[in-house]
Design goal:
Elements (H helix, E strand, L loop, with lengths): L5 E6 L4 E6 L4 E5 L15 H6 L1 H12 L2
Antiparallel strand pairs: 1-2, 2-3
Length: 66
Amino acid sequence: MKYLKVKSVSAIDDNPLLVEFDNAEKKKYDITSLLSIDMFSPLKDVALFGSSLNLMVTLVSNYLNR
């Protein structure tokens, strides 16, 4: 099975992200379920979520591409 690679991730609102894959497909991804995982829990803080988009993009990309 071929797994898609994440090409880009951008924040839409508070928790949803727009994820673009290497096949040009775009999906909306609600990260609410990830917030219970220790490495993502700091993003529960809305101010941190907005100011840490680059870090979040890296973490979510790595999580989705594992």
